[in-house]
Design brief:
Layout: E1 2-7, H1 14-25, E2 29-31, H2 32-41, H3 45-56, H4 62-73, E3 81-85, H5 91-104, E4 110-115, H6 118-128, H7 135-149, H8 151-158, E5 162-166, H9 171-183
Parallel strand pairs: 1-3, 1-4, 2-3, 4-5
Helix pairs in contact: 2-3, 4-5
Bound molecules: adenosine-5'-diphosphate.
């Protein structure tokens, strides 16, 4: 049973690694960013509500994202495991998730922080060129990361759940390290 929560700044490589791990372990990759971008594309009520926040690099309100994650984690394909990428992003969301996992009887989740220095992250995001990857929006996303999301590192460290992997290596090396900490 593999249950993984991925932490790390935007551009740390969470999405890339999460996809590889999900394929390798045959478990769903649950990316809140991907779900929100799809909702936006389809112009669903959720997408329409989320759009303004995403365009500015702000967080979508906790309640919207939490409902979305609860719905997704309640699907039958999560029974054999999952990898969460982009959630939680606030301490509020982390508290919600701990309660949700308890309620769903999903235990033993591993929390992995993918560490990458700031200057590397900015370079990677500028190269990526996604629609919401303009320099201004990237700066805002990093600010939001520092103030809202980085505190999760201490949150999980205090709960003795934090595992750390150096994300500033080749994709293969990062994957190798991840595999080790996740299966240990
Ligand atoms: P990145 O790859 O830059 O880390 P994501 O693809 O994970 O970005 O998310 C893109 C955008 O979607 C975020 O900037 C934010 O507006 C929104 N978003 C994704 N996950 C969450 C979340 N857990 N809480 C609030 N907003 C979120």
């Amino acid at each position: 049973m593999t249950r993984v929560i991925f932490l790390g700044p935007p551009g740390a490589g969470k999405g890339t690694q999460a996809k590889i791990i999900a394929d390798d372990w045959s478990i769903p990759h649950i990316s809140t960013g991907d779900i929100l971008r799809q909702a936006l594309k389809d112009q669903t009520p959720l997408g329409i509500k989320a759009q303004g926040y995403m365009d500015k690099g702000e967080l979508v309100p906790d309640q919207l994202v939490q409902e979305m994650v609860e719905e997704r984690l309640s699907q039958p394909d999560t029974k054999l495991g999952w990898i969460l990428d982009g959630f939680p992003r606030t301490v509020n969301q982390a508290v919600f998730l701990a309660e949700l996992l308890h309620k769903l009887n999903h235990q033993g989740e591993k929390v992995v922080n993918l560490e990458v220095p700031d200057e590397i992250v900015i370079g990677r995001l500028l190269e990526r060129g996604r629609k919401d990857d303009t320099e201004e929006v990237i700066r805002r996303r990093l600010q939001v990361y520092r103030s809202e999301t980085a505190p999760l590192i201490d949150f999980y460290r205090d709960r003795h759940q934090l595992l750390t992997v150096n994300g500033n290596q080749s994709q293969e090396e990062v994957f190798g390290e991840l595999k080790k900490v996740i299966s240990s």
